[in-house]
């Protein structure tokens, strides 16, 4: 239940994501909260050939940066389920809407950066460098 609340606080509403571990790490003196989670769901048909001969085929790890919460950095190590079609032999990964396919920055983080840029930053000169400095 606490794990579900963590996802809710971070604005993640994908019911197919289940937290498996939560840890705090220090990298170069910076604290990072790392959420390990698994993304999986049942697949009825192959998206390529429509066959029903689908099997689970391991997982792919996605490292994504989430938005900050109470000025603390959050990252997610997401194990995305891989699937294999026994008919056409093509593979694919489970999908989620928290991050664009092939990207590592979450949609929320991108919105936060844009919001900060729009509002203007009070420190330094309000440049993009100042915005990016706040997210290192």
From TrEMBL:
Transmembrane segments: none annotated. Residues 44-88 form the Transposase IS204/IS1001/IS1096/IS1165 zinc-finger domain. InterPro entries: Transpos_ISL3 (IPR047951), Transposase_Znf (IPR029261). It comes from the Bacteria. This is Transposase IS204/IS1001/IS1096/IS1165 zinc-finger domain-containing protein. The lineage of its organism: Bacteria, Bacillati, Bacillota, Bacilli, Lactobacillales.
């Amino acid at each position: 239940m606490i794990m579900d609340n963590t996802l809710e606080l971070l604005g993640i509403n994908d019911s197919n994501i289940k937290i498996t571990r939560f840890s705090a790490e220090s990298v170069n003196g910076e604290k990072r909260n790392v959420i390990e989670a698994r993304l999986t769901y049942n697949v009825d048909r192959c998206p390529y050939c429509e066959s029903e001969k689908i099997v689970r085929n391991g997982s792919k790890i996605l490292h994504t940066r989430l938005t900050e919460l109470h000025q603390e950095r959050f990252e997610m190590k997401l194990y995305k389920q891989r699937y294999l079609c026994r008919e056409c032999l093509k593979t694919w990964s489970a999908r989620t809407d928290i991050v664009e396919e092939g990207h590592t920055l979450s949609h929320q983080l991108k919105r936060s950066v844009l919001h900060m840029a729009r509002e203007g930053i009070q420190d330094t000169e309000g440049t993009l460098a100042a915005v990016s400095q706040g997210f290192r």
